[in-house]
Amino acid sequence: MTALAAGTAEGRRADQTPLVEMRNIAIHFGGVRAVDDVSIDLMPGEVVALLGHNGAGKSTLIKILSGAYRADMGEIYVNGEKAEIRSTRDAKRYGIETIYQTLALAENIDAAGNLFLGRELMTGWGTLDDQRMAAETRKVMQRLNPNFRNLKTPVRSLSGGQRQSVAIARAIYFNARILIMDEPTAALGPAETRMVAELIQQLKAEGIGIFLISHDIHDVYDLADRCAVMKNGKLVGVVRTREVSKDDILGMIILGKNPITGTVVY
Amino acid sequence: MTVSSPLPAARMSGRGLIETLEIDTRMLAMIGALAAIWVVFDVITGGLFLTPRNLWNLAVQTSSVAAMATGMVLVIVARHIDLSVGSLLGLTGMVMAVLQSRFFGIDGDLGWVLSVLAGFVLAGAIGGIQGWWIAYRGVPAFIVTLAGLLIYRGLAWWMTSGQTVAPLNPNFELIGGGLDGSLGAFWSWALGVAAILALCARAVFARRRRHAYGFPVRPLWAEAAVLAAQIVPVVAFVMVMNAYPQPRTNVPMGIPVPVLIVIAVMLVMTFVATRTRFGRYVFAIGGNPEAAELSGINVRRITVWIFVVMGLLVAVGAAIATARLKAGLNATGELDELRVIAAAVIGGTSLAGGVGTIFGAVLGALTMQSLQSGMVLLGLPSPMQNVVIGLVLVLAVWLDQSYRRRRL
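ok -> structure tokens follow
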């Protein structure tokens, strides 16, 4: 058994098809192989952390899933069926929502406008229904961040935590089944970080699969069911978090050494 | 967009009042600045500025630039620029003039209508081509439209080897205002009343919608005050336009046709910018192009459409300017690109993108034209007029930026 198969098979029960399966994904930019033959999967209600140094290829891999990049090779399966993801619009159609590290908010537009950006609610006249969008935003915000009041100010003037709430609300409002969170707590204080952790538990319970991207094992160790580690565009391995120590995972990130199979990625 | 937080009724300071009324303080400052310019010029010209005659002319002179400035708002909001509008106006106006005087004939209405339509198709298509180079070929808008500035002016000259084309169809010339190009007293009032009814209906409708979704609404007195602040200028405008009689008669001129066109353009463009998907996407692209792309917005296609809209508005400006001159000249619209950009910027459009209003741009155009007109009344030599306009442009942008920084 290869390093890859060991990690993957372990997380899977026989009667379940994975929510997402990325098989043999590769992409290069110029001569650089940013992602080199990587396969990972995600089960319903599971949190998989995707770890690695800056430039390891984790963000690139996930941008292929979210439709921002197109892979040169490999296939993506959603619920066991082959998915054609050519754009972020396609990805959203498969229920794949992404919370980007940069949050990807239009700073000059209010929370409701950002939440519905690209998927606006319209009136019968074919015009923007700003009041209904604001009302819906208020509804979803009450669940996420009850202190959120500034529905109609540009997000530029919101705090980091509030902006994060808008980005999260945008991902979960449209009934995501697969959620990608890129460094979700990197810019947050302790209270807001706890809020995100609670939210992840809640979404997990609802059967949503979550990819957590991070360069720091401490951020995700308590949250992740499995950890997938990448180095130099290659997959070092996928391990069940509670079967290995933090040091094992650090070894994977830094040395590229798989603690179970002993293989090393350079 | 203004803040709408429920305020404790006790706190009724100036700031509280402004928030209750949901007034855009920036816009208020601009209107104040314009009013100050008017009053100062009126005092130093000894009452020559604030006369119906001067205000009527001012409105007509502003029209062409104001129409184009509404399009420039979208261009600049989306982080682009269009330096070609003056030359494109020259070419489009020349095409309209040549078509009606040399091909379709100036008799009958079909000829001039077709010539105007052809102008719109031409300017829209040229805008689209420029947009395509910018969006799909990645050539910066500055370069594409700078090339356009040279190309279209050259073509406008080349079409008639520099000759002026006249006469034009008399009905076409109504578009430019002139002695007969006004609505007259009755229709001016009819329009004014229609506008007042529309403002009332809008206020009621907006209030109902906010109520339906449980958002705070203004107190009724505030609603009435805001409505009054909208209705009074409408009434004043109609009265002033009607107070200017045709020469040697008592027959009121009324609202000039080009001003009517600009009002229509302003309404349509405000609708496009604030109530349609397209408008929302233009602002999203200006705020964060990457986020817009990730949201599934087709940024390139929107960019092409922005320049098509700009082109169509140049055609509006070309029809007004050509009709006002009653001739096709290859120099029509020279330096208009700078006036149009200045109008948008003075009107609060941020060159960093993402921020701007249509109404602000029209106010900006009116402010610029007021300065120009006032300096003419004062007999300032025209090179000095440019010096003053240049200084005002820098001052306006500096004020705007300090205001924004203070707000953040």
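Chain B has two domains: 25-181+260-376+383-400, 182-255.
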